[in-house]
Amino acid sequence: MSSELPFTPVTLSEHDGVRYLHLDSVWVQGAMRIRQPQVVVLEYVQRMLAAVLWRSSAALSQGRAVQLGLGAGAITRFTLKALKLPTTVVEINPMVVDVNRLRFHLPVGDPKLEVVVADAGAWLKTAEPRSTGLLHVDLYDHEAAAPVLDDAEFYAGCHALLEDGGVFSVNLFGRDASYAESAARIAEVFGPENVWRLRATREGNSVVIATRGAPLPERAERLQRADTIEARFGTLGLPARKWLRLIRPYLADPA
Fold it and tell me: What homologous superfamily does CATH list for 42-246?
């Protein structure tokens, strides 16, 4: 009988007041400031949350949020506690869920939070179409070489999950990952006019945002939304005005 565990063990580290989640490797899968758990610590996660710029101020507290890949729960904590949205998170590794409940403030018994232990691709095939306003995807294994799910079928499932005006945000990272190929698959599904990217972080995380018919608003409206986001969530680590300088349309991407 094999002694191998069915899932990669979860390990933790702490430095300078921040707790990090790992999957038995040096790669960071998520982080939380211990004394301020609502603060979004990692820069690429902050940029994933730039998806809220495509939602009007009124729509920020409407609809449902879904996260595929729990990590250390930063996005889940934000959509559930800060945006007060009913939130579903899908995570394949039950040990990640357990550690989040014990060490990363994942609520237990909150009626607005649904935690599904399942493969994200399989879950998408049975999910209710057009049921989600905000969809965040961050799916990596312990090797962090490339997204675990990154084909056209998966992105079509993400598109089908979104309501009209819904927004999808994905982290593309890894030594074997090809940003250009992944972005092209997303653009094929969503339509290139509905896809944007944020400039990559120093660590190499490239965030792509795509929508189901929600255009990036004109400059004045973008500034107003950014000001509203910073006023409400700036203390949580969301530099919305900075995001405006980082966003580029997919159609303008030389890659």
Answer: Vaccinia Virus protein VP39 (3.40.50.150)
